[in-house]
Amino acid sequence: MNDYVLSCCSTADLSAGYLLRRDIPYLGYPYFIDGKKYRDDFGQSLNHAIFYSMMRAGADTKTTQLNADEYEAYFTPFLEKGKDVLHVTLSSGLSGSYNSAMIAREKLSRLYPEQKLIIVDSLSASAGNGLLVDKLADLRDEGMKITDLGNWAEQHKQHLQHWFFSSDLTFYIKGGRISKTQGFIGTTMKICPLLDVNNQGRLVPRAKIRGKKKTIREIVKRMSEHANNHLAYDERCFVSHSDCLEDAEAVANLVMETFPRLKGKVKIFPIGTTIGSHTGPGTVALFFWGDARVE
Fold first, then answer.
1. 12 is a domain residue
2. How many CB atoms lie within 10 A of CB 174?
3. What is the pLDDT of residues 129-187, one digit of tens each?
4. Do 143 and 240 share a structural domain?
């Protein structure tokens, strides 16, 4: 195994245990509930179910990007030990944290000129970011050198497909992503917006579908259209959800029925407190390797 550090931010939305088993340290995003500061640590300090119940009860949630000082403090202990580091950030299309990491890199590269510090803008979010990091861990464990790993990430990250829907539009309205009128009509007619993440790492609405069951069928249909080898897809698939496990399981089960050659079972993870502060409860996301993303 190569002697360098592969790391990510908590917005990879896997789990602390999963990252520990894969030897992937992480940096937790700060967030606030009713003015009280927390760290996104995969539900260890504040259980995800409690977090989402607080949102439903009207708690005010806010997030802030990681700043350069936080990245510098995180990277420094690895570099002091003589370790090279490859770190994968949340999409620059959703947060300024990638720029903060690059500012920290510029300073630390002068202080530790012997060490490599590679920053990868994942152009991904939630377990899509996690699926990229998971694949990089496979390649690291197979012996790929850190520079080659960084190059691989840059060459392949656009092939990480993200599709997601929400059955609860409350927090999309609250965050200004849809208007109150659109939200009222959508809620009344039980519309589930289907979105993906484009090649700039930004959220893009792709369809408005009436009814959750139909939306679940449609999101798996999108996977059959875009996945590598289509129905013969034989790589990993992740699903994440914001306190709607039953819906996530319905998507995962349909994926496993539709794609019999999957690499293992579909892994389901909670959407963490950073991403979840913006989606609110009721969102399900599906991640897989496939076509290059479009605008």
1. yes
2. 16
3. 999 999 999 999 999 999 999 999 999 999 999 999 987 666 555 555 554 444 434 44
4. no
